[in-house]
Specification:
Layout: E1 4-7, H1 12-22, E2 28-31, H2 47-62, E3 66-75, H3 96-106, E4 116-126, E5 135-145, E6 161-163, E7 168-169, H4 175-181, H5 183-200
Parallel strand pairs: 1-2, 1-3
Antiparallel strand pairs: 3-4, 4-5, 5-6, 6-7
Helix pairs in contact: 4-5
């Protein structure tokens, strides 16, 4: 496999995270924007499907191995919503305040015990555009939804995601603790552990 990997995202934070994760393996992680790759159409109905769609799209256009992630918030009382639509739940992509407001409105009056939720992150790595056997790693982070936002750290739904073992929201956690506990942190740890074996196996 090439020592260059394309990240199927233009997110600078994700790029930095994966560059650090793979640095000691001498794998150079490049954003898909370096190759003028447009965002893939996310037509899947699951996190896994969308992660594979994004990685396959980037791999086919660049000819390089590609890594993608798909992640979001699942609220049990809302039958798993916002789920794969987390980034555009209120109608505008990336409107975090709008997304939070919509979730809180939908949970108004719902007792604490029924506000269980989790963050989910799926990573998919393909050696090439037609790879039939992608490496898939999934992390989940259990918690519940607060009645009002707390904290100004993190991003996305972090201010309303309560972390029981730390008695605070995800937005109030120190970054090092969040990195260890979070859905993306867990998926990344599994990915890092599985990568060496996967790289040495035939496509």
């Amino acid at each position: 496999m090439s020592n260059q990997l394309v990240l199927a995202s233009g997110n600078a934070g994700k790029l930095s995270e994966f560059q650090g994760l793979l640095q000691d393996l001498q794998i150079e992680v490049k954003p898909q924007s370096d190759f003028r790759v447009s965002d893939a159409e996310e037509t899947g109905l699951t996190f896994i499907e969308n992660a594979i769609l994004k990685a396959r799209h980037a791999a086919r256009i660049t000819g390089l191995p590609a890594l993608a992630d798909d992640s979001g918030l699942e609220v049990d009382f809302l039958n798993g919503a916002p789920g794969i639509y987390s980034a555009r739940y209120s109608g505008t992509h990336g409107d975090n305040a709008g997304h939070i407001a919509k979730v809180l409105t939908e949970l108004e009056g719902v007792p604490e015990a029924q506000r269980t939720a989790r963050f989910v992150c799926v990573l998919a790595l393909l050696r090439h555009g037609d790879d039939p056997r992608p490496l898939i790693c999934q992390g989940t982070w259990e918690g519940r939804i607060l009645a009002v936002p707390q904290g100004d750290g993190g991003f996305g739904y972090d201010p309303i995601f309560y972390v029981p073992e730390h008695h605070c929201s995800a937005a109030e956690l120190p970054q090092d603790i969040k990195n260890r506990l979070s859905h993306r942190g867990q998926a990344s740890a599994l990915f890092r552990a599985a990568l060496s074996d996967w790289l040495s196996s035939p496509a």
